[in-house]
Amino acid sequence: MRFLLCIFLWIFFVGGLWAYTWQRDAGLPEGPARVAALETLSGDYVLEITPGFSIEKDPFALAVDDGAGSPGLEIRLNGSEIIVDVENISRGNVIRIREGLALTAGFNEFYVKASPPVSEAHLDHGLRIRLLENGAPVADRTVWGSRGAVVAGSVSFNLAAQEEDEHDH
What we know:
Blueprint: H1 2-26, E1 45-51, E2 73-77, E3 80-82, E4 95-97, E5 106-114, E6 125-133, E7 136-145, E8 151-159
Antiparallel strand pairs: 1-4, 1-6, 2-3, 2-5, 5-8, 6-7
């Protein structure tokens, strides 16, 4: 009798667990999730970067690339690097970037990293990042580094999709 009760309980628990997992998995999608295509915005966008220090190549950085981009300055938009063609990056000079800005509707993020001069290791440094759309600021933030540390940070913002005007002529 105990043996039959043990078999009944085993069938009850294992059968209940099987029924639960079967019902739970029935609601899952069949294939992998499809990511919606991102809508790239076209407009008059300008990225302005104003360093409060003279940007120099980081003497302690591991040199693994071929030297592409600007020495001591790294800019990324949503993970993609933006190449900056600037000869003299110096304190107070505004760097304006118009090309290579593949902004999308929804969430966007700029990541910046700049190294201050070793001779100014005792100072705090700031790097102002502004995104302008038709001259009006969309995002404006200053990223700080203390006591000569590498100045690095991100600026996050949302952009709305542009609506097309429909006029009857």
